[in-house]
Amino acid sequence: MTRAPCLCLVVLLSACGIDDAALGPGTGGTAGAAGSGGAATGGASGSGGGAGTGGASATGCGKGAPAAGKRTLAHGGAERSYQLHVPSGYDASKPTPVVVNFHGRTAASFGEAAPLQEAVSKLYAKADAAGFVVVNPQGLSDSDGSQTWNAGTCCAEDKSRDDVGFADAILDELEAVLCVDKKRIFATGLSNGGFLSHRLACERAERYAAVAPVAAFNGMASCSPSRGISLISFNGTADQLVSFAASQNSNQAWVTRNGCKPAPTETFKKGDSHCDTYSGCKDGAEVVFCTIDDGGHTWPGGMDMSALGFGKTTQDLIANDAMWELFQKHPLP
After folding, report:
1. 4 phi and psi, to 5 degrees?
2. For the chain, how far is it from start to end, CA to CA, in angstroms?
3. How far is CA 118 from CA 95, 125, 201, in A?
4. 140: left (phi over 0), alpha (psi -120 to 50) or beta
5. How far apart are CA 251 and CA 54, in angstroms?
6. Do residues 268 and 218 touch, judged by C-beta distance below 8 A?
7. Where are the domains of the chain?
8. Does domain 3-329 sit in CATH 3.40.50.1820?
9. N or C end of the chain, less CB within 10 A?
10. What does the pLDDT read at residue 296?
């Protein structure tokens, strides 16, 4: 890992309060928070929407929608929080999908990371158009002030922190206050948040129907999902923080883990971006690996962070559209 350049990039992104994990290059798939080290091995753009049709939470249906914005709950002996966005046109009598959107490693001195994740991903507009709830959970701070997630080797200092349990607690609360379609709960996230969505695919495949990591790879030492789970990942070939080779290795591991056919089909190509889909997976799952040529440590179609030193943000592929297309096709069985 080349430490100095990573730290410079972290400082640049801190100016916008979006201070992500520094992940070194190399085919071995090293991963770690900047300044702390750590190691691990590691669809087409489209739209459409509407709420899901099954698995509604019995307790939350028929209730008025809670106010959008910051909500708090007690978990693990601490007060935790998350940002809630309920789509315009929400109908409390109809089961509604949920997308949980995890932020990257962020300096606490620049404010809470959860609302900043919307500035990066711009997911609320897609939620309003397609009709799904968005939740941006808030990570805890490490000793250096960075707000992080425990996603295996990346990136929290405390490897015993129960962030998976915190995500469970958020869903439990949502199912009590909203008409949640329990068969259509999904996870995404950027960098450290993308690593956590990988972890949820490994450990909570019975609760999350599919995941969509952005600028991340699987940092879990072991991964044994309870079923075949669909995944769409987004990685740039010029990402200076997350090794592209490691993301390729991670994706191929999901292909093997899910028992997919070894040869992919190119299902999207436009400009600098293309997506390869592996089908024939167990339990009807599929794995989609979207590549952005010369793409940086960014969210495709999201905030342009090139001026901050994080590389190109493509507009040829809109991650929000591509992930929603996959999510619609793959509810829980």
Report:
1. -60, -50
2. 41
3. 24, 10, 22
4. beta
5. 30
6. no
7. 3-329
8. yes
9. C
10. 98
